[in-house]
Amino acid sequence: MNINQTSPKRFILLGLSNVPYLQSIFFLVFFIMYIMTLSGNLLLITLVRINPKLQTPMYIFLCNLSTIDICFSSTVVPKILINTLIMDKSISVLECALQMYFHLALGSTECIIIAIMAYDRFAAICRPLHYNTIMNKKICVSLAVGTWSVCFINSAIHVALIFQLPNCNSYHVHHFLCELPPFLRTLCSETLVNEIAMYIGAGFIGMCSFFLILISYVHIIVTILKIRSSQGRHKAFSTCGSHLTVVVLYYGTILFVYLRPRSSITSETDKTFSILYTVVTPMLNPIIYGIKNKDVKDTIRR
Ligand SMILES: *[C@@H]1O[C@H](CO)[C@@H](O)[C@H](O)[C@H]1NC(C)=O
User: Fold this and answer.
1) pLDDT score recorded for residue 97
2) Ligand 1, from 44, 60, 147, 151: best to mutate by most atoms within 8 Å of Cβ?
3) In the chain, which stretches have pLDDT less than 50?
């Protein structure tokens, strides 16, 4: 956005509700979900830190996921809470840019970390004898550092490209956060370059992760089917059941918002899916991993 004298310095987030009696309900729901996200993920991180038995690549990457979840909802939910409380729907240009930057960077990091976790399950189930060499400490750290840097650089490029465009008429964002696809739709200038950049970025990160997950799970399923005893099968599957749930939840919603043509579906649908992956999924991750997992439960009990 060229911020000159004539352009306002704030955007209006139209996604937040106008209806007075809904305000307090929204506030309460978002507040409770935010508290649950923070406490659930912090608990999971603490459990992994204090239990030496949980110091495996799977749980360390799960800590990465929890860290991302905490930051991810913190870039969005506090702003919604404050705006709902003071009944003001505006957001400054800088806040909007920062929100878009962190939202995109953390979202794509999460995407890749989930894929790395699928690869980790593949290594554990299909190559158990070589697991310690495939997922050794050095490789894990390089994977994590590489993922975080690529995603934060990628996001910086998109946000820089977008905020250079002139915004001629509309300072109204039909959404409750500054997120790339709905934001592009509010601009009146030619956004083809940005859309192409978005499709290449999202396509590359999303598709690579998606295929890594797909290939890992094809191998995992083939291996599990070959196991004779049903007990062995169950054991092998139980370690990737939680992960598979997270994959479906997360990829289902995100691919839907990012990889479809401009304005093919109403912004209402956009908003619903964004609420799912910005507010609900981060809250569910620790629950999904905590409930079925014996090691996690044992640590809590102790
Ligand atoms: C993320 O994962 C890497 C590699 O396993 C690990 O070294 C790092 O401590 C983790 N970071 C967090 C915040 O959990």
Assistant:
1) 87
2) 60
3) 1-6
pLDDT of residue 27: 84
What is the model's pLDDT at position 275? 77
How close is the Cα of 277 to the center of ligand 1, in Å? 22
Q: Which atom of ligand 1 is nearest to the CA of 67?
A: 13
All structural domains of the chain with their residue ranges: 10-301
The model's pTM:
0.85
Listed as own residue / partner, the contacts of 27-32 with beta carbons closer than 8 Å and 24 or more positions apart are: 27/81, 27/84, 27/85, 30/77, 30/80, 30/81, 30/84, 30/279, 31/81
Pick among 2.40.128.90, 1.20.140.10, 1.20.1070.10, 1.10.150.240: CATH of 10-301:
1.20.1070.10
Structure tokens at 261: 């043509």
